[in-house]
Amino acid sequence: DTAVSQTPKYLVTQMGNDKSIKCEQNLGHDTMYWYKQDSKKFLKIMFSYNNKELIINETVPNRFSPKSPDKAHLNLHINSLELGDSAVYFCASSQDSRGSDTQYFGPGTRLTVL
Amino acid sequence: AQSVTQLGSHVSVSEGALVLLRCNYSSSVPPYLFWYVQYPNQGLQLLLKYTTGATLVKGINGFEAEFKKSETSFHLTKPSAHMSDAAEYFCAVSERGGYNKLIFGAGTRLAVHP
Q1: What is d(CA B11, CA B27) in angstroms, rounded to the nearest whole number?
Q2: Pairing mode of beta strands A31-37, A10-13
Q3: What share of chain B is helix, strand, coil (3-state, %, to 5)?
Q4: How far apart are the C-alpha atoms of A90 and A35, rounded to whole Å?
Q5: pLDDT tens, residue by residue, B45-101
Q6: Are B25 and B4 in contact, with CB atoms under 8 Å apart?
Q7: A112 vs chain B: nearest CA distance in angstroms?
Q8: B49–chain A Cβ distance below 8 A for any pair
Q9: B45 in contact with A, Cβ within 8 Å
Q10: Is A63 left (phi over 0), alpha (psi -120 to 50) or beta?
Q11: Cβ of B7 under 8 Å from any chain A Cβ?
Q12: Chain B residues with CB inside 8 Å of A31's CB?
């Protein structure tokens, strides 16, 4: 049983296209996150949702739009893809939004923009 | 603003040798502290965390870390390295009293040679 799953695992697309990445967690957690890991392995938070409400929205281009249809799902839609969007995107979840709570990460989605 | 510094982007040890990965944080108030491990092409897995109480924290796979407030450090150690410990290690912090927003260090690649 995968706790945090992401689809697809790999995504290769052309500049200018629109794509979505899906995330699901079966841990019963209230809070979910999106992180971006660049080519130098640097990890940075993008968004966080708690009970379907956006609580963290870092400085991310408007082309990125998260959507949480329910507590168990957090999707990431990216419009007008650019070369610089190439990265590994990780979804994570935690029991709640407290700073001490452990975050559980998915396996990642490797996005390559050509 | 909080920040995390991991000294040494690459650390190489012999199997059976001591592992020491360094992490220093910058924050006006001591944050919550985490160590995550990332194996190749996988997501991140929590090794251990410090939230409150005893400053020496034991984690999985024989790792431990000690929170030293006076040194603003949270170094990760393991007495005897195993080949399976080869991975990328990330130190991270989140703010006390704030949302669960992990700020990561740049990571340390640990290589273990026979």
Answers
A1: 26
A2: unpaired
A3: 5, 50, 45
A4: 5
A5: 999 999 999 999 999 999 999 999 999 999 999 999 999 999 999 999 999 888 889
A6: yes
A7: 15
A8: yes
A9: yes
A10: alpha
A11: no
A12: 100
The string of pLDDT tens digits covering residues A8-66 is: 999 999 999 999 999 999 999 999 999 999 999 999 999 999 998 999 899 789 999 99
B72 touches A at CB < 8 Å? no
Dist CA B37 CA B35 (whole Å):
7
Q: 3-state DSSP call for residue A108?
A: coil
The whole-angstrom separation of Cα B111 and Cα A86 is 26
| Chain A residue with minimum CA distance to B48 | A102
Indicate the pairing of strand B3-5 with strand B108-113.
unpaired
Integer Cα distance of A111 and A45 in angstroms: 16
pLDDT of A13 reads 97
- Compute and round to an integer the Cα radius of gyration of chain A: 13
Cα separation, B43 vs A29, in Å, equals: 18
Q: pLDDT digits over B14-42, tens only?
A: 999 999 999 999 988 889 999 999 998 88
Do residues A48 and A106 lie in contact, with contact meaning Cβ atoms separated by under 8 Å? no
